[in-house]
Amino acid sequence: MTPPLRSRQFWLPHPLFSLFLTLLWLLMVNDLSVAHALLGLALGVAIPLVTHAFWPEEAKIRRPLPLLRYLGVLLVDILRSNLVVALRILRPARQLRPGFFTYPLALEDDFAITLLASTISLTPGTVSLHYDNEANTLLIHALHLEDEAEAIATIRTRYEQPLEEIFR
Amino acid sequence: MTHLDMPATLQLVVAAFLLIGALVALIGSWGLAKLPDFYTRLHGPTKASTLGVGCTLIGSLLFFSHQQDGVSVQEALVTIFLFATAPVSAHMLGKAALRRRLKGVPGTRNMPDR
């Protein structure tokens, strides 16, 4: 399993992630000096190297542009979901119709499914609770479930299809 | 009161963000206290509090970007980490509740019977 000691695979298993960690470090210390850039780079190399064994197979982001659009949609939906949930909280609890529903996943990739599950938890009135590995379904709890089929269709077109496009 | 070297409009904007953030966080906590069962309570911390903290952070970002040289970016990082971790903790909590077969409020549709 372990790649040879002298290969790039061994020292830099996730080049993009290393870059991301370096940038993250620079942002965290809020200081753009050479010393911190070097320290960031060292961390960027060391952390993937040490944690490599715990990594699932790497997901490939095929198209960055849809990813940006997805993040935009997500940001707007987080705002909307906050308003929706705030209103539901302020209204009398009697009007709530909470419910569970099972969402059949079309995605296969672990990382993409994680993203989808997180998205579902951040967006209007739904929290993902359980991922069934065998049936490839997500169990979702909705704060106010009116139409199950509609909720599934919304998730499918709004989040899952863009994710499929990104990771295909 | 200490003197702030800051334009009045910016002060107003910062104050508005802080107030909205505090209000949203308050509603979220209120929901945590009043919603009828565990599963509905999960919705408070994943949503309302993310926006509450988000608004507070935008206020902080504006304030410190003005007070210090350059843009303060640490707040943006806090937001990213929050958005990445809040759904995961909600997922784990919900999973634990399912395992323990916690009852949902009467009238919950499709309550799993596992």
Automatic annotation (TrEMBL), chain A:
TM helices/strands, residue ranges: 12-30, 37-55
InterPro entries: Cation_antiport_E
Keyword rRNA-binding: no
Record key words, sorted: Cell membrane, Membrane, Transmembrane, Transmembrane helix
Intracellular or extracellular location(s): Cell membrane
Recorded GO MF terms: monoatomic cation transmembrane transporter activity
Superkingdom: Bacteria
GO (cellular component) term, any one: plasma membrane
Membrane topology category: Multi-pass membrane protein
Primary location: membrane
Pfam family name, one: MNHE
Protein family per UniProt: Belongs to the CPA3 antiporters (TC 2.A.63) subunit E family.
The protein, known as: Na+/H+ antiporter subunit E
